[in-house]
Amino acid sequence: xxxxxxxxxxxxxxxxxxxxxxxxxxxxxxxxxxxxxxxxxxxxxxxxxxxxxxxxxxxxxxxxxxxxxxxxxxxxxxxxxxxxxxxxxxxxxxxxxxxxxxxxxxxxxxxxxxxxxxxxxxxxxxxxxxxxxxxxxxxxxxxxxxxxxxxxxxxxxxxxxxxxxxxxxxxxxxxxxxxxxxxxxxxxxxxxxxxxxxxxxxxxxxxxxxxxxxxxxxxxxxxxxxxxxxxxxxxxxxxxxxxxxxxxxxxxxxxxxxxxxxxxxxxxxxxxxxxxxxxxxxxxxxxxxxxxxxxxxxxxxxxxxxxxxxxxxxxxxxxxxxxxxxxxxxxxxxxxxxxxxxxxxxxxxxxxxxxxxxxxxxxxxxxxxxxxxxxxxx
Length: 378
Known about the structure:
This protein is of the alpha/beta class. The longest helix has 27 residues, at 140-166. The protein has 2 domains: 2-158; 168-375, Rhomboid-like fold (Up-down Bundle). It has helices at 7-22, 59-80, 121-126, 130-133, 140-166, 172-190, 194-201, 205-209, 215-218, 226-247, 249-270, 279-295, 297-321, 327-344, 352-375, and strands at residues 26-28, 36-40, 48-52, 56-58, 87-91, 94-97, 106-110. Helix content is 63%, strand content 8%. A hairpin with a 7-residue loop joins β1 and β2 (36-40).
């Protein structure tokens, strides 16, 4: 029964069990890569772990393996928006003429069996519990069954979490926000109070500094004309429906309203005239999407690069060269949407440490914007 698993199989399966079930690593599917297992966890010290089972004869083969790995890692960095990516390569079958040397951002170890972990102090620092977690009472086929069941159970749980986050949900808050914008616009026109609404509720610095702070929010529900309304409602439907589904209704509404207020503060800080429109809040949703997409970049990395980031850049460029566009509200909304999402957290991804830091930075940024917009001497 014990001989049903080879030495290499036992070591590889124990390592996979530890990194997948204990450290939340996920397998990476790579074309053209044989006898290697790649695992990723963008929140751990080593973002990439390679387990290499093929026999490496000498230093020449080892050098080619490092060169090949560096090229693959470079592609992963681009896809996942990572500036630095530490890699741990674990060799299972190394010849006597192959001498390990760690290179920049890649540490290398050779494990004939789990006892060899004692030869590498940096493994203890990164994974202090790995030695104990690699000890199993099961042998042979029983070990294979246990490890396989545990990994399958972990993968199933992670798949269910991901499916829950990305499952399409009814955009009730987005629909309500769109209806509110439409009702206010057409209702004010029908009852002949459109100009009164603009005068009383638009974002305008002097009135806000005199105590009419409600304008910071109410201005986000007013629009200059029908085209302004239609454009913002369409953008809100497209972007808002996705973010409401990803974040959940409560967090989504907080992001929207907070971005609207901070966008208004940025507007009165740098603009002299009045401002109306939901675009600051919509840019806040884009900032939120950037942070959410960064955490789920394995799934959304290509969308961020090909659609979201170009959309943000294009609209900001139009805002700078065009007339009548409050680009400072866009920038304020974009930044505040990202910050408040850090504070609120991304489901199954954000740590308590990240959220606490997010709240600290968000509070400081909000205080700074309030001072700049409301209390700074003019």
